[in-house]
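S1.2 Input.
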Amino acid sequence: MSSNYWTKEIKRADAASPKTGATRRMDRLRSTLQHVDPVIANRAWREAADAIQRITDRYTP
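S1.3 Output.
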């Protein structure tokens, strides 16, 4: 898929809701990481999970 596809999909999803936009971004990441070394993919997922956890902690009362 072209990067133009993902750009349009993410813009549409962002217009619907922030959660939908985030989900589409994760779909794009998953699609990209399918084509790289599993060690690198696992590290990228761990880093994404850590970043999401920090955001969750920041906005959770």
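S1.4 Remarks. The longest helix spans residues 38-59.
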